Amino acid sequence: MAVPASDSISLPTWNRRHLLGLQELESAEIETILDHAAEFKRRMQQRVRLDPLRGVAVANLFFEASTRTRTSFSLAAKRLGADVVDFTASSSSLSKGETFIDTALTIESMGVDLMVIRHSSPGAPEMLSRHLRCGILNAGDGTHEHPTQGLLDVFTMREQLGSLAGKTVTLVGDIKHSRVARSNIWALKKLGANIIVCGPGTLIPPGIEKLGVRVAHRFDDVLQESDVINLLRVQFERQRGAFFPSIAEYAHLFGMNGDRLRRARPGVLILAPGPINRGVEITPDVADGPNSQILHQVTNGLFIRMACLHLLAGQQLSHAQETR
After folding, report:
1. Edge to edge, what strands does the sheet with 228-231 contain?
2. Among residues 27, 79, 150, 210, which is most buried (max CB within 10 A)?
3. pLDDT by residue (tens digit) across 133-181?
């Protein structure tokens, strides 16, 4: 791998070869990623051409369906000048009995420097980091973490509110099955925010208060104190059993609609990681209204992923030079 020196964008201090989750990061490391993403956003808005990853090969290994994350990572790598390989599990040798690790090793042996992994099993990216030499970036592993989604959510909040210290962020919905909720909690706590998790009792993990969050089961009770409301999608594909009587009842009790928005704190930010279920977690008037940050989240995801790829590529180059 050769990462050419570039006068256009400098690398901040960064010492990790992999990004597996936000739980392991210090607050200063999270701020480094956010600041680096902000710099990429500024340069891209000025239409400055950047190619600091020219000569770097990035492989996207997605073992779960994805639209936003996969497209965002591919575009981020290409905007940085990297060569991109998109891997599709359904048409791979996995269908012939090859193991997950052997598949990844085969792709790495073709000269891949960074590997972006999405997998349904918690811990899959961490396992690959112990078997591969390339840098590993977790794009979502089961119900464990989704670090770049957590980062882009926090980046969007910080962009609108400035410092998050003392701000109250309410995560609403399927906390039990949400990797996004976990990454949000780790990042927000380290940046000094107050966090409320709100949803049906069946969708709130027992003991989650130990993470330093407050639990609420009535959405209406926390509207007035929330600076940000992040509406998590109900993870129907990960649920095994019925966690609430009906979708209509869930929408009635926990959906964000025009009436709740009018009763919420003025200027409250409405986030949703997507894909959004209109009429379930959020009504169209709110999703498309002035408080909504949903499309800003998608846009900011590109810059967060550019920042993460750039930081890991720089560390990967340093590691390769040290081991020669």
Report:
1. 214-216, 194-198, 168-172, 228-231, 269-271
2. 150
3. 999 999 999 999 999 999 999 999 999 999 999 999 999 999 998 999 9
Q: Which amino acid is at 127?
A: M
Task: Write the secondary structure of 196-225 as one string of H (helix), E (strand) and C (coil).
Answer: EEECCHHHCCCCHHHHCCEEECCHHHHHHH
Return the axis-axis angle of helices 179-190 and 147-161, rounded to nearest 10°: 50
Type and span of the H or E element at 148: helix 147-161
Q: How far apart are CA 115 and CA 124, in angstroms?
A: 12
CB burial of residue 94 (10 Å; 0-12, 13-18, 19+)? middle
Q: What is the pLDDT of residue 91?
A: 52
Percent of the chain with pLDDT over 90: 78
Looking at residue 254, its pLDDT comes to 95
Burial level of 96, CB count in 10 A (0-12/13-18/19+)? exposed
In the block, residue with structure tokens 């709740």: 260
Residue 67: predicted pLDDT = 87
Rounded CA separation 200/180 (Å) = 17
Name all domains of the chain by residue range, CATH numbers in brackets: 27-146+300-319 (3.40.50.1370), 147-298 (3.40.50.1370)
Sign of the torsion angle spanned by Cα atoms 160, 165, 169, 174: positive
- Using the structure block, give the residue that is written with the tokens 């998790």: 197
Strands 57-62 and 114-119: parallel
Beta bridge partners of 136: 115
Percentage of residues of the chain with pLDDT beyond 70: 89
pLDDT of 7 above 60: no
* Stretch among 161-170, 171-180, 200-209, 245-254 having the lowest mean pLDDT: 245-254
Q: Is 227 helix (H, G, I), strand (E, B) or coil?
A: coil
